[in-house]
Write a structure and sequence with these properties.
The protein is an alpha+beta fold. The protein contains twelve helices and 13 strands. Strand 1 and strand 2 form a beta hairpin.
């Protein structure tokens, strides 16, 4: 058996690892004092094998990979982007591939995978390993359009100022085919849950059952027999839309593992090293991302997910009909303050003075916020959503009080002249220090 080629590959790997360590620690780097954990992370070789090579003295002289001439590749000019992603802990080749395609990369995914495997030393070191949980449940399958799964995910948003905030991601997925929908909100209140569910139903259809965990917005408690006692507003929402809800066992999140995996996939793929202007821009990008993912092929069937959902699942789903009750859920009610403002998503918007009601309804679509009357029959005003903390007033928010005014009945013949007002001396200028007496004399 000829091991010559294998030995040369091993020598190149060790030599390249030493070159990287010299680049990090300087020319004073001693191979015999190398940190095996760091060398393992760079080379990918096992700790026991590196320990054996260290005992033999790492006899790898004259095999430096950096001395070999480098040929031009399709990645030239894009390596800085991948290096930056790797330094942030992003080793997902699909994420790197999507980022490079946005800036004009024309190569393939395999080239990126090869580059990542050779530059894993740029990844931050792992602090700890997660212990396995073992097999606690079984996978189950459902008929097309039978069950949707939904859940919330949360992400920390860092801003240019010191004070950041936490955004909530609503996720919904079809359990049969995997068609997904995500939307971001400033918080995970019940009204945002209703809006996210309705938007998901508009995109994917309304199923027979929605599987979720024991949210406070969904269930209050369980009775003595274990049956759920629904939150009254959520129960009315189910009756209005026309679906049933099934709850997971407490502290058993992998019952709805499809949506749990979707939330994890969003965090590791869509949100990796992502910057955005505001939540409206982020939701537009999320909608585009969902459309691209739904057009991908599944591992089991060589058909796009969207095609499976359209041909199989849609037959068992029913379309969401926009009624007045549905519009009320899409437009939450707000109380008008004494100064004519309503609060929505942490920001204040003005309401016209001519509207005499004490409450109104507010809806945000894209970059526009709509303010309706309490019965949704009149559009009162619109505002541009800028996500600024400053309150936004409308033109006719305050009443203009008209008062009686007298005008001259005859021609005015008296003329006077007004000049510029004289400058008054300041309190300091009234003191004349030149004429003060010298107390020392």
């Amino acid at each position: 058996m000829n091991n010559e080629g294998h030995g040369n590959d091993l020598q190149k790997i060790i030599a390249q690892g030493f070159d990287e360590l010299k680049h990090i620690h300087g020319e004073s780097f001693d191979p015999q004092k190398v940190n095996l954990a760091e060398l393992e992370r760079i080379t990918g070789l096992s700790r026991s094998r590196l320990r054996t090579l260290k005992k033999k003295g790492f006899d790898m002289a004259g095999t430096s990979a950096r001395s070999m001439p480098q040929k031009p590749t399709v990645l030239d000019g894009y390596t800085d982007i991948i290096d930056d992603l790797l330094s942030q802990g992003v080793s997902n080749s699909s994420v790197c591939f999507d980022r490079l395609k946005e800036v004009g990369y024309t190569g393939g995914l395999t080239t990126i995978k090869t580059y990542i495997s050779r530059h894993r030393y740029l990844l931050p070191p792992k602090r700890h390993s997660v212990s396995p949980q073992g097999n606690r449940g079984r996978r189950y399958v459902t008929d097309p359009g039978e069950v949707f799964q939904m859940d919330w995910g949360f992400v920390n948003v860092h801003t240019d100022t010191d004070k950041g905030y936490q955004a909530a991601c609503f996720a919904m997925v079809c359990h049969h085919c995997g068609a997904c929908y995500i939307e971001f909100f400033p918080n995970a209140k019940q009204e945002n849950l209703f809006i996210g569910m309705l938007h998901g139903f508009i995109k994917l259809g309304v199923p027979k059952t929605v599987l979720t965990d024991n949210m406070k917005s969904v269930v209050i408690r369980r009775d003595a027999e274990g049956h759920p006692i629904w939150q009254k507003d959520y129960e009315a929402f189910m009756d209005t839309v026309g679906f049933f809800t099934k709850l997971c066992r407490p502290r058993h999140p992998f019952t709805k593992g499809k949506v749990e995996r979707l939330v994890r996939y969003v965090k590791e793929n869509f949100l990796c090293a992502r910057t955005f202007g505001d939540l409206t821009d982020l939701n537009y990008e999320a909608e585009r991302w969902c459309s691209l993912r739904n057009m991908r092929h599944t591992q089991a069937v060589d058909i796009p997910i969207a095609e499976i959902h359209k041909t199989k699942c849609s037959n068992a789903l029913h379309e969401l009909i926009r009624t007045e009750d549905i519009d009320r859920y899409l437009s939450p009610e707000r109380i008008i303050s004494f100064d004519g403002f309503v609060s929505f998503e942490g920001r204040r918007y003005g309401v016209p003075y001519r509207y005499t009601g004490k409450t109104c309804r507010v809806k945000r679509e894209g970059y526009t916020l709509y303010v309706y009357s309490a019965d949704l029959k009149e559009l009162l005003t619109t505002h541009d959503v800028t996500w600024s903390k400053r309150a936004q007033s409308c033109d006719d928010q305050y009443e203009i009080m008209e008062q009686p005014e007298e005008f001259p009945s005859q021609k005015v013949t008296t003329d006077i002249r007004q000049t510029e007002p004289l400058e008054k001396p300041t309190g300091f200028e009234k003191f004349n220090f030149d004429r003060e007496e010298l107390w020392d004399e």
